[in-house]
Amino acid sequence: MVHMLREESLGAKIAVQDGVLIYYCLQCSYNTPYKWNMKAHKLIHSGERPFVCNVCKKSFNRKGNLKTHLMVHLRDVSQ
């Protein structure tokens, strides 16, 4: 049995199927069983970029992208 719910804060529909939650994006075909993946995915549509480089103020929608970017500044210092 499948139950559909909607979670406004995530901008997602949630299906409960065989005891497993599946999050469905309301704006595209993306889906995931992990709430944190849906939270990260939501930033793609919102344009929000909460991770900001403290060196050059460039912003990113994922923490991992900021970490990768910071390597640019570390290379500049070591040269």
From TrEMBL:
Main localization category: nucleus
Pfam families for the chain: zf-C2H2
Domain of life: Eukaryota
GO molecular function: DNA-binding transcription factor activity, RNA polymerase II-specific; RNA polymerase II cis-regulatory region sequence-specific DNA binding; zinc ion binding
Key words of the record: Metal-binding, Nucleus, Repeat, Transcription, Transcription regulation, Zinc, Zinc-finger
Classification via PROSITE patterns: ZINC_FINGER_C2H2_1, ZINC_FINGER_C2H2_2
Cellular localization per UniProt: Nucleus
Residues of the C2H2-type domain: 23-50, 51-78
GO cellular component: nucleus
Family named by the database record: Belongs to the sal C2H2-type zinc-finger protein family.
Protein name, UniProt field: C2H2-type domain-containing protein
Organism: Larinioides sclopetarius
Lineage of producing organism: Eukaryota, Metazoa, Ecdysozoa, Arthropoda, Chelicerata
